[in-house]
Amino acid sequence: MTNDTEAPASCCSISAPNPAAAGNGRANLLAGGASDDLTTCPVMVGNPVSKKAAEAAGLFRDHEGERYYFCCAGCGPAFDSDPAKYAANMA
To answer: Residue 73 sits in which domain range?
Structure first.
């Protein structure tokens, strides 16, 4: 008997150029963040994000008067596919 199930790949595993990328290819969006600067990613719910670092890296979108910050470059395109769905994650 084998277990052929694999965990789904996260959107954060997508390789995309990111000026804030750490050595492992993921952005270090928590570096230097004050507690009032922290939020969570609406796509990868629960992933903490520094608003300042995400803005500097261009990892954000505006939707219906609100700004949403992402943990990695892969989350922006996912958010664009259904902004209302992901915005609801932040409510």
So the answer is: 27-88
- The verdict on residue 60 lying in a domain is yes
Nearest Cα residue to 17 out of 64, 52, 60, 59:
59
pLDDT digit string (tens) for 29-87?
555 556 789 999 999 999 999 999 999 999 999 999 999 999 999 999 999 999 999 99
More confident residue, 22 or 27: 27
DSSP string, 57-86: HT-EEEETTEEEE-SSTTHHHHHHH-HHHH
Q: Whole-angstrom Cα distance, residue 60 to residue 64?
A: 13
Does any domain span residue 6? no
